[in-house]
Amino acid sequence: MRTIDNTKIEWCYVEWKQGQPFASAFQDVYFSSDNGVLETEHVFLQGNDLSNRWQQLTTNTFTITETGFGSGLNFLCAAKLWLETAPKDTILNFTSVEKYPLVLSDITTALQLWPELTTLSTPLLAQYATLMNAKTISFYDNRVQLSLLIGDATEQLRHLHNKTDAWFLDGFSPAKNPNMWQPALFEQMARLSHANTTFATFTSAGMVRRGLISAGFKVIKRSGFGKKREMITGHFAGNQNVLGNNSGT
Fold it and tell me: Which CATH architecture does the domain made up of 2-240 adopt?
């Protein structure tokens, strides 16, 4: 454990298997070995229908909250799409929670796998140490703001008050990281959601579906990316606790 600006950080040192980052503590990968960028686009960007929503944006800001910053790939892909589709005078607020952040050398190596994102990843890496102190930093001509909260997802979400427009439920799989995928997390999501809030996640595990439904989300199964047969998306439905078409139990 190291401290940066009085913030105690438990770093996640990764193994590298066939050029891909692997978290030995969770026995899980950070992104699909098929194609991490395409996975992010399929699961999180398309899963939350962000391109259409951003082209039709009627507010000055849009907020994404993510559980599991990892390599920062989801953030970079979302920022890229935002810069390409959202009105020029709007701001993307991206808040991500990470309990075990990567050290700078590992996140740098991971993002080098995506040269098409270099113009976006370079300023992120330059400010990475500052982000470790839970500061909000503006990127890309102040069109994107990133806040990285270090610590347990549920605990960190309790400190937030602004409503979220879209959730990226990432992090390691529920079977390998059960401490994150708990009812308390879904309850905090509900508290921070509004009538138009959506979510997307790579997993379709029953405990996740049931937890989201119990917290007031409508859940819909979709085809997963690559080798994953299914994933889930949905939106906040208040206390209706309704189950989406083809969602199963």
Answer: 3-Layer(aba) Sandwich (3.40)
* Averaged confidence pLDDT in the chain: 88
Give the pLDDT confidence of 45-61 residue by residue, as tens digits. 999 999 999 999 999 99
Q: How far is CA 66 from CA 128, 167, 203, in A?
A: 17, 6, 14
| 78 neighbors 117 (Cβ within 8 angstroms) | no
Domain map of the chain by residue range? 2-240
Query: Pairing between strand 136-139 and 7-9?
Result: unpaired
- 91-98 and 61-67 as β-strands: parallel, antiparallel, unpaired? parallel
Nearest-angstrom CA–CA distance, 235 and 200: 9
**Does the pTM of the predicted model rise above 0.85?**
yes
Per-residue pLDDT at 4 exceeds 60 = no
